[in-house]
Design a protein that fits this description.
This protein has about 180 residues and is of the alpha+beta class.
Length: about 180
Amino acid sequence: MQTDLWKKFEEHISLLLAIKNCNAMHCVIIVSLLLCGLIAGAYGCDVQATIDCSSNSFRYATCAVPGGLAVGIVTVIQKHSRSACTLGISFGYSAGSVWVNQGCRATFNVCSCRNYQSIDCDSWDFAHQVCGVPGAAAVTYVRLAQQRSNSACILNSSYGIDGANIYAKSGCRGRFDVCYN
């Protein structure tokens, strides 16, 4: 476990060193977020990759994810374009590849997993709500896909992993992408 954690840390430091125009404060924020993700176990992916993908001349393009599985959760690490990079509109994941369109150019983190579901979990009246993940022995990764509340949804604060379940509290309501064993 410690060796895997160190390897992921080294991969992310290499990524930071490769990012152009990274001022000191920006790099500190990215390192902090990456460390929080590593320590909190947010990288419960069967395949995890960081790739650059570009929609040149506003054209549709795909970028293969090495070892990528059919289902993946993709997030923008750093946008390189003036055009918006909006999940489901100008970027996404399909059949082992990141796709981009409408001028989106960015560095993406991809978490690809064999067992994946989107789960609705809602904290009504600010109550702690545990939401089951059918077929899960253990949830390994959770990401807010769509927020439906005015209350903040913050990983490991107002939503997170609870064994084979996920939870929402403090008024967080949304749809969550979940990887599990």
